[in-house]
Amino acid sequence: MPRIYFKTADQYVEFAEGEEVNVLRMAIREDIDVPWQCASGNCGTDRLMVEEGAENLDPPRRRERARLGELVDEGYRLACQTYTRGDATFSWDPDQVGLDDEDGAGGGARTGWAGTG
Amino acid sequence: MAEMMSSSEFRVALEQAFSGTMAKDASFSRAWATGRLHKQHFVHWATNHYHYIGPFGDYLGLMYANTPDHARDAKDFLLQNMYEEELSDDRHTDLLIRFAEACGGTRAYVQDRNNAMPFAKGMQGWMYYVSGRENFVVSSAALIVGLESQVPSIYRTQYPTLINKYGFSEWEAEFFDLHITSDEIHGERGYQIVLKYADTPELQQRCLHYVREAADMRFAYTKALYETYVQPDLGPWIEELEREPALVG
Question: Which of A76, B41, B113, B144 is deepest in the core (most CB within 10 A)?
Answer without folding.
Answer: B144
